[in-house]
Amino acid sequence: MKEIFERRSIRKYKDIPVEKEKVLKILEAARNAPSAKNRQPWKFIVLTDNAKREFLDRMEQGIEREKSAPALPGSAKGITDAVNTLRIMRQAPVLIVILNTNGTSFFDPVDADGRMTEICDTLSIGAAVENMLLEAHSLGFGTLWIANTCYAYKELTEHLDTDSQLVGAVALGYADESPSARPRRSLEEITEFRS
Ligand SMILES: Cc1cc2nc3c(=O)[nH]c(=O)nc-3n(C[C@H](O)[C@H](O)[C@H](O)COP(=O)(O)O)c2cc1C
């Protein structure tokens, strides 16, 4: 369990490739996560080298387009962070793109049933991603969980040629920093005991 407490989001990576068998171990951890109705609504696309560059070039185009023609109404306040995340993604040697195979586009309307299903599937994928981060940490890697792909949703789903929902990505590599633990809300603040 020490991985839970030692893991950090890593935003600086060494220029060292990641061994494929270790990527497979990380995906094996993801695959063993629990999922709602055991739907296992995930797919992982591992990008390195040219495939990663092409994906990130498309993400950059999407972020640029989002500045002048926003598809997400509140995106202006998140763009600077997205540009920063893109820079980190370029540095990491591996990018694992995360898809919800049961999900639909952000831009499609959803009724209450669909929303419930989407919440359950997103939670399931979150469990898989956390497993990935913890296994990666135990193997000596740094990771960054990324949702800022959302600013280029249309560009990236077109680029991947997928109807699945693009949930985000995980940057993976050997860490070139060792940040301190980020603050957490106290147990008292987040917990209630009722009897
Ligand atoms: C769903 C999710 C999406 C995130 N997206 C990003 C992102 O796009 N860019 C980024 O730099 N960090 C991102 N993070 C990392 C958080 O900023 C980080 O987990 C948080 O600040 C706590 O720091 P720690 O992971 O080192 O404990 C994301 C984390 C989660 C769980």
Describe the global form: globular
The CATH H-level superfamily is NADH Oxidase
Query: In percent, how much strand structure appears in the residues?
Result: 5-15%
How many structural domains are formed by the residues?
A: 1
Order of helices and strands: HHEHHEHEHEH
Strand order of the largest sheet: 1-2-4-3
C-alpha Rg (nearest Å): 17 Å
The number of helical runs is: 7
Ligands present: flavin mononucleotide
Architecture per CATH nomenclature, i.e. the level-2 architecture: 3-Layer(aba) Sandwich
- Overall structural class, as computed from helix and strand content, comes to alpha+beta
> Which percent bin holds the helix content?
40-55%
Oligomer: single chain
For the sheet with most strands, the description reads:
4 strands, antiparallel
Instruction: Give the mean pLDDT.
Output: 97
CATH topology: NADH Oxidase
CATH classification class: Alpha Beta
Number of strands: 4
Weakly predicted, low-confidence segments: none
Distance between the termini: 29 Å
